[in-house]
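Structure (tokenized):
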């Protein structure tokens, strides 16, 4: 194991995931890359037509620069997370699109030997209807996945 890719999102619990993945990578002597995916970015720049009597999107005249601003905020987020580890060898990657697809694609491109993800406590109904990023990645991955459980009782310690 020489390369560990750690996925993080805006959930404050991501700190636990990043720390756990980083500690594992260091024990393995592996390089670390933090990845953050900005899903469905194009949604924010679309000027939708009226529908169901709602005129809001036409009147708002959504600024197309919002996409660039979202990317900049996300880039700053992942770089700040990397800086927080106080290890200049940690790299970062920003991606757009469906989260699981983007993580799997970058894992392949970067040559990751392991992917580290958190498992947020979503409701059973949400898991049944939508699945989770972790389960989608587990279905399609070609490399091992290290899952860090995030549960309320773990956060209290």
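Design, position by position:
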């Amino acid at each position: 194991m020489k390369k560990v890719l750690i996925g993080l999102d805006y959930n404050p619990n991501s700190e636990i995931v990043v720390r756990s993945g980083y500690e594992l990578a260091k024990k393995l002597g592996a390089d670390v890359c933090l990845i953050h995916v900005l899903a469905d970015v194009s949604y924010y720049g679309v000027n939708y037509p009226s529908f169901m009597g709602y005129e809001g999107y036409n009147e708002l005249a959504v600024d197309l620069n919002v996409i660039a601003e979202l990317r900049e905020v996300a880039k700053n987020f992942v770089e700040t997370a990397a800086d927080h580890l106080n290890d200049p060898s940690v790299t970062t990657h920003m991606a757009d699109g469906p989260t699981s697809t983007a993580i799997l694609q970058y894992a392949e491109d970067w040559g990751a030997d392991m992917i580290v993800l958190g498992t947020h406590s979503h409701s059973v109904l949400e898991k049944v209807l939508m699945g989770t990023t972790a389960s989608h990645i587990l279905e399609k991955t070609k490399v091992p996945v290290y899952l860090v459980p995030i549960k309320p009782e773990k956060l209290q310690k």
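Reviewer-requested clarification: The CA atoms of residues 71 and 78 lie 11 Å apart. Residues 65-84 form the longest helix (20 residues).
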